[in-house]
Amino acid sequence: MKFFVDTADIAEIRDLAASGLLDGVTTNPSLILKSGKPMLDTIREICAVVPGPVSAEVTATEHGKMLEEGRKLAKLARNVAVKVPLTPDGLKTCKVLSGEGTMVNVTLCFSPAQALLAAKAGATFISPFVGRLDDIGHDGMSLIAEIMQIYRQYPHLKTEVLVASVRHPQHVVQAAKLGAHVSTVPPNVLRQLFKHALTDAGLKAFLDDWAKTGQSIL
Ligand code: E4P
User: Fold this and answer.
1) Is residue 206 left, alpha or beta, with left meaning phi > 0 and alpha meaning psi from -120 to 50?
2) What residue segments make up the domains of the chain, in order of their start?
3) Can you list the pairs that 174-179 forms with residues at least 24 positions away whose Cβ atoms lie under 8 Å?
4) Which residue puts its alpha carbon closest to atom 12 of ligand 1?
5) pLDDT tens digit at each of 218 positions of the chain
6) In testing the pocket of ligand 1, which one of 3, 4, 5, 6 has its CB within 8 Å of the most ligand atoms?
7) CATH of 2-213, one of 3.30.1330.10, 3.40.50.720, 3.30.1300.30, 3.20.20.70
8) Dist CA 17 CA 23 (whole Å)
9) What is the pTM of this model?
């Protein structure tokens, strides 16, 4: 499974990229607002740090304008994935941009039917939002299961399932069990993936015993 980080905070991205485990980045208008920085500069900067796909979202809602914005975003760097909303205009834009060789991430997916349409429109990524479904009492992960099941029936579809709106490590584990291609994870949740109390306790015990040997490897 590929790991993307869901943030526009360049300091966080640099730090996580240094782990060597980061495959890409997703941003959205709310994350740009949170960063307090100009969007275009931020996307350029992120693209220079992370070689994998960096999602940059259009803000127009009408096809012509969306296409214009998408083309402008795609020119920022070769690893930009233009993010479009799952609306009729968004999918029309997806079809054109993917035909031009631009990566497209179709966002705000909440149903299997929407995911099927995005794949037909040539999306590089479909982003189902699991956390927001959980928030309203639905089972976000069952949407991932349904989309994976549908896409498996049509092996010619190349759209990757990018699990979004991830709230905790179990979302990532469950998505991986279902074979989802990518999880986009907030920085704090990405850091939680490393952690286990028994790892910390075990390491402390080993290092305490090592110190008692009086030895040194170097
Ligand atoms: C995905 O690309 C979105 O940016 C993101 O995962 C949304 O998550 P949220 O529901 O925590 O805002």
Assistant:
1) alpha
2) 2-213
3) 174/141, 174/144, 175/1, 175/130, 175/141, 175/144, 176/1, 178/141, 178/144, 178/145, 178/148, 179/148
4) 165
5) 999 999 999 999 999 999 999 999 999 999 999 999 999 999 999 999 999 999 999 999 999 999 999 999 999 999 999 999 999 999 999 999 999 999 999 999 999 999 999 999 999 999 999 999 999 999 999 999 999 999 999 999 999 999 999 999 999 999 999 999 999 999 999 999 999 999 999 999 999 999 999 999 99
6) 6
7) 3.20.20.70
8) 8
9) 0.96
Locate 210 and state its tokens: 């090592």
